[in-house]
Amino acid sequence: MNSIRVLHTEPEAEPPSATAEAEDVEVETAGSLEEAEDLLRDEVFDVVVTELDVGDGTGFDLVRKVRELQPDTGCILYTDADLADVTTDDGNVVTEFVPRDSPDSEERLQRVLRTTAENRSQTAYPVADDDSRLDVVDAVDGDSADLQRELERVVDLASRHFDADVATVSVIGEREQRLLASEGLDVDSTPRQEAVCNYTLLEDDVTVVEDIQTHPWCDGMEAIHDLGLRFYAGCPVKPDGDTATGTFCIYSEDPCEGFTGEDERYLRLLAEDAASKISSYGLGGSEGSS
Amino acid sequence: MSRAFEYTFGFPPNLSIAGVPAGTNVLVAGPSDACALDLALALTAPEETSDESALFVSSDEPGEDLLKRFDGIDVEADLARVGVVDCSAESTSNRFVGRHGAIEGPGDLRKIAVEMSTLYETLVERGPAGVRMGLFSVSGLLEHSEHREVTRFVHTFTGRVLATEDLGVVYVDTERSSDSVVDGLSHFCDLRVDVRVTDGVPLVRVTDTDGLRQDWTSLDLGLKEGRETA
Lengths: 290, 230
Fold this sequence. Notes:
CATH class of chain B: Alpha Beta
Radius of gyration of chain A: 21 Å
Largest sheet of chain B: 8 strands, mixed
Strand content of chain A: 15-25%
Number of helices of chain A: 10
CATH superfamily of chain B: P-loop containing nucleotide triphosphate hydrolases
Helix content of chain B: 25-40%
Largest sheet of chain A: 6 strands, antiparallel
CATH architecture of the largest domain in chain A: 2-Layer Sandwich
Helix content of chain A: 25-40%
Number of strands of chain A: 11
Shape of chain A: elongated
Number of domains of chain B: 1
Structural class of chain A: alpha/beta
Number of strands of chain B: 12
Order of helices and strands of chain B: EEEHEHEEEHEHHEHEEE
Distance between the termini of chain B: 43 Å
Shape of chain B: globular
Order of helices and strands of chain A: EHEHEHEEHHHEEEHEHEEHH
Strand order of the largest sheet of chain B: 5-4-8-9-3-10-11-12
Oligomer: heterodimer
Strand content of chain B: 15-25%
CATH topology of the largest domain in chain A: Beta-Lactamase
Distance between the termini of chain A: 21 Å
Radius of gyration of chain B: 16 Å
C-alpha cells in the first residue's frame, strides 16, 4: 500500500511519536470531535488514533462517527484515562485500545496501527490478499463504452434466464463495490460494507444466499434490505484467470431454495463470459495486460 | 516488544496438530459436548516450560468454570499465567469488574476489548515469549450483539494477534452457530480445526489457508475419569 494516512485527535497535543516519526505515515491532527468530523468528510484515512477526551466529546463518540462516515477505517483508542465512568448505553462500538500508560505503549501503538492499516483489520467483512487483488482491480477500465455495452448484454441475459429482479457485474475496490453493468438496479456503487459479494470474492465457486433477510452475512446491509431483495447468487469474476476483481451476481425478491447445480453451472459460465469481456475490452495497465 | 526471532507456538503432542508461527489465528469449530471447547482450551494452554502466558475471553461461562475444564483434560498448563476477561455474567451481582469498571455482559463488546488490551499488558510482562489468546466463544457473543459488530470484533481480535505476533484461538460452537457463520469466521483465521463425534469417538480435521484439508483423525485429549464425549 502507499503511505498510511492517520487522523490523530487530541486537544492541544502533538501526535504520539509512534505515528509521527515513521516515514510512510502521514498524520493529520484534529483538536476536537468537530474538527475530526470535518476532516473525515473531506479525506479518507486508514486509521484514526484518538484520546478519550477530545474536548467536545469522547473518543468513543469519534469512533461512532468514523463507523458512520468511513466504516472501513480502523480506530485506536490511545489513552491512560479511566474508562470506568464512560457509559455504554449510547451504543456499542468496537475499537482497538492501547493503554497509554503501559511500558511499551509507543511500540504497541505503532505495531497495532501498522497492522490495522496494512491488513484493514477492523472491517466488518473478511479481506484476503487485498493489496495484490486491488492492483488488478485498478487495471480495469470500467468507463470503457465497449466494455459496458458487452457486459450489459450478459446481465440482460442473466436477468432473463433466471427471471432475476437484479443482475450485476461489479468490481470491488478498497472501499466500494462499483457496478460495471446492471439490470434492475439504478446505482453506480455501494459502500463495500454493504456488499454480500465480499464473501463471494473469497470463494472459488458460486455462493448462494437463499434468504438475505435471515442470513448472518447480510446483517446490517440496509441498502439490500430496503430494496426488498431476498435471494442472492454470485460467482467471482477473474479477468486474468486468477484474481477475482469482482463478482457476477443475481438477486431476486423471493427467497429461493431451488437453485440447482445446473443453475450454478450457468451462472459460472456467465461469470466467465464477463471475465473474458473485461479481459478483452477493459483490462489495461501493466498488471492487467500481462 | 518485538521478538528477535520467529517464535513457534507448540501444541500438546497428543493433539497431533503441528506448531504454528507467531501471529497465527486458529478457528476451532464444533459442538462443545464433542470436546471442541476442550481442544480450543488445550491449544491455548501456556506451556509450563516456556515463558508464555494466556488470555481468555469467556462469554459462555464464568472464567473460573472455564479454567476448571483443565482439570478434566490431560494437558499441562500453568494457570498462574492465565488471565481471563469474564464477560459471561449479565446479572449485576456476578459482573466481572476490571480496571475500567464492570463488563455488562457478552454484548458489551466495547468494554471487553478495553479489558482485553489492559490485561494483555500485564500478561505480556509475565510471559514475554508470547501470549495465547482465546475467544470462548464467538457463539456467545453473537447471542448478544449484531453479526456485523461481532464480525468486526473478531477481525480486530485476529488483527491484534497478528500485530503482536501472538497466537489467537477463536472457538465457535456449531450447535449454536450456523454453517454460514462458521464459514464466514474461517476467513479471518489461518487454520481451521473442525471437531465432530462419530460412533462416540471425537474426530478432528485441520484445514489450512490454502483450503488443503487433512483427513479426519481421532482426537486424543486424554479425558480424565468422569469425562466423556457425547
